[in-house]
Amino acid sequence: MQAKDLFPPSARFVYLRTGDDGDLSNYLELHPEERSLVARAVDKRKGEFGDARWCAHRALAELGVPPGRAILKGDSGMPLWPEGFVGSLSHTEGLRAAVAAPASQLLSVGLDVEPAEALPEGVIDQISRSGERHRIDAMQAGGAHWAGRLLFSAKEATYKCWFPLTRRWLGFEDAEIDIRADGTFIAYILARPTPAPLMYGRWVVRGGYVFASAFLERAS
């Protein structure tokens, strides 16, 4: 998969498949301050943390950021990217991913990855608005059993794009996601005040996973 599937040209996207959640090799290579963030966690958490940070550092390296810069945590666990850059991290069973971009090109970006599986029963009712539910039902009727998971992932990516700009919670009901068959979506932000009334997003289902991005480009 290429970055252009999910992001504008300025972004760099790196993902890693892993079959061993107990593999700590990437965690052990992190900056000591990064390791300290999850030092008391179980090995599975350390492994996924280390793998996601590995992806993030690879993405930053592609943008010319020198190695050795720690990505620490801010409010609500938000990754603190090096000055002049924005990004997002995601991890799920068997896959870790990260995106980074120059802040001169993107105001913010969000990424979420989920298994391409149906949501547990009842969850769709908790996360969807009525208009969204009609679109998801139509997609599922057409054979996209993962459509509910796509909606969830798009909302998660939207939240990850929103939070660094506002430092405020965005509930599932606070964004209306218009998912389109061409692999794009528009997230209409219903919460006020908001830095932008809508965010653009892209989605891909590939290799057993749903990938969703949301981003705000800086005006030229």
UniProtKB/TrEMBL annotation:
GO cellular component, as recorded: enterobactin synthetase complex; plasma membrane
Keywords attached to this entry: Magnesium, Metal-binding, Transferase
Named cofactor requirement(s): Mg(2+)
Record-annotated 4'-phosphopantetheinyl transferase domain positions: 108-209
UniProt GO BP: enterobactin biosynthetic process
GO molecular function: holo-[acyl-carrier-protein] synthase activity; magnesium ion binding
Pfam families: 4PPT_N (PF17837), ACPS (PF01648)
Residues that hold CoA according to the record: 45, 53, 90-91, 112, 156, 160, 170
Domain 4'-phosphopantetheinyl transferase N-terminal: 33-101
Residues noted as binding Mg(2+) in the record, renumbered to the chain: 112, 114
Name assigned to this protein: 4'-phosphopantetheinyl transferase
Organism: Corynebacterium liangguodongii
